[in-house]
Write a structure and sequence with these properties.
CATH superfamily of the largest domain: TonB-dependent receptor, beta-barrel domain
Low-confidence stretches: 7-18, 495-505
Structural class: mainly beta
Strand content: over 45%
CATH topology of the largest domain: Maltoporin, Chain A
Distance between the termini: 65 Å
Shape: globular
Largest sheet: 22 strands, antiparallel, barrel
Number of domains: 2
Radius of gyration: 29 Å
CATH class of the largest domain: Mainly Beta
Amino acid sequence: MKNSIWILILFNLQFCFAQQTSKISGFVSGNGQKIQAANVQLVGTNQKTVSDSLGYYIFENVTGENGKIQVTSAGFKPVTQRFSIINGQDLSLDFDLEDNENQLNEVVVSGTLKPVKRLESAVPVEVYSPVFFKKNPTPSIYDALQNINGVRPQLNCGVCNTGDIHINGLEGPYTLVMIDGMPIVSSLSTVYGLSGIPNSLVERIEIVKGPASSLYGSEAVGGLINIITKNPTNAPMFSADYFTTTYLENNLDLGMKFNVGKKTISLLGVNYFNYDQVIDKDKDNFTDVTLSDRISVFNKWNFQRNDNRLFTIAARGMYEDRWGGDVRWEKKYRGGDEIYGESIYTKRGELIGSYQLPFEEKLMLSFSGNVHYQDSRYGTTSYIANQKIGFLQLTWDKKIGRNDILAGAAARYTYYNDNTTATKNPEKTWLPGIFVQDEITFSPKSQVLLGARYDYNSIHGSIFTPRFAYRFKANENTIFRLNAGTGFRVVNLFTEDHAALTGSRDVIIKNDLKPEQSVNVNLNYIQKINFGNGTFMGIETTAFYTRFSNKIISDYETDPNKIIYDNIDGYALSQGISINIDLNFPSGLKFIIGATFLDNKNVQDEISERPFLTENFTGTWSVSYKIEPWNLLLDYTGNVYSPMKLPLLNEYDPRNPNSPWYSIQNIQFTYTGWKNFEIYGGIKNLLNFTPKQNNPFLISRTNDPFDKNVQYDSNGKVMVTPDNPYGLTFDTTYVYGQNQTIRGFLGLRYTLK
């Protein structure tokens, strides 16, 4: 009996210890501040709480020894952390949340040339992080931009696949492309400059839609794209990213960081892309996609200095060998008239840097230079071009009371020469300028920006570009911004216009060409909505209006033996409205949805005409969902475009004068459960769309690419013959989208921090 009593006592004690409860408490913070109203839950139970005004949370009467706590808060990434309770002791557990990659308060520099939170910038700036581009991996930044609302990579040649970047329907020369804030990518080489930048070294991409010439000068007429590379100090020690497709496109990105002494950190990146498969699925005996062998090396250095003054310098070299054309083409046919091919050799070197001068005042000296050499053969046409650009800028940044002043002086030198009859002597252009900007803060809710720039072009003379912006913060979740400004683009006639390169036409400049100019007004509205359960929605809407004057047009139709250049006798308009929506659920489901409605037209002699290759509507989306138990991330991305006016050769051309509605959609699965590794794969172009659909052909007369059997009448017009029933010549300009069918891809990433 005595033993039974002791057994009963021990059993009761064991039961009591088993039911012993503990407290778990701690703080929730993010961005260095305590987070109020964060949702905190004991996973697998009904116990929930929210953090107080100091970011503090507490759970009473927690039973068991092991468990998980999940914390969610609007604008931050959800965090789940395991815990263990030892001997019934109370537990202190803090959480430091990271910004969601689509959060509106990213720090940006492109709008005002100084770092500021996106919501506090008077100028609207869109920000895209590497996380966004990983949702649809591509071999170049040029291709990656296809999922950004209002931005469209446009192919301009169905054989060589060269192209440019359209912002709000405006052609590539109106977009300024920069690397680390330097105008390193010229209009001649936009497509080449955006190819070969290792995606693994990109910190973020900032996009400003609308003129920005008051800060950046020439070419920032329709907008700018600023590719910001990683700071070597914060970059991982080593990263590698390789993927291939069922087309056998192979892309490799490598990044590595190393210390050179105690005060110098270097970041080295290498990108290699190879595609050498001759594929002709549309059965026209021409390659569907240009073949390419490209390597790019990028090296960035940061030097530690007294008082944390900045000194960084970076260099990039790129070489590419690409060709497209007749599937039988080999290099021995380069430049000949036996088998048609378009072969392009590109060599490019770039240097950029920033140095903060050793004075009490904040004086920053920035510089860049690039050399672009191109050796091309378009059938028998030779195009050999050499372009050099040097840029130097000094800025002074000073806060005086309510005024935040930025002033600077800049100089740009451009050298261009080619072997065409259009360029008899090398073009050498100087473009010095001065600018000033003042951000005036009247109250925490009201801010005004005033800016102006004066440039002197050595050919065209003086150019003045003012700027105005107003920001009103109604509350923490509602912001209005009004922006107005002007832009300009100096004359740059000869890029890769195939018709201008034939050498068979005389180039006629009808009048003294004036720089193209634009006036822009846009109204921007941002609304943040916190639903209280961890769900967050951000809405950004922009209405824009841009009017161009002095637009330069090229006339190939008046005289078949001449190219006539002149400023438009009228004006051009680009107007519309765009909307972006970010929607994040605590479950890990995320939506990024964008739409742009466009109305672009050229008005000349009171006749309004819609430009070629300009859509009226663009839609983009990205849907992501993380399945935590499986460590699996699902990404579904895509875009949709309304019909565009396409260039036909004559009234008999059987090709469709307008593109159809079309959409490119992709799906990707990423497994993250393997330490330091990510395995990803999926399908691109799910709908299997190609431009050939509903068209008899894309490239006209591929059976006679040298026009040997084309007959002309006495006026130089192509005649209709039994061999040429539509009266066409060989033409590669009828192209509006990528010509690759549905395909799979598979990749592997490794990151060592």
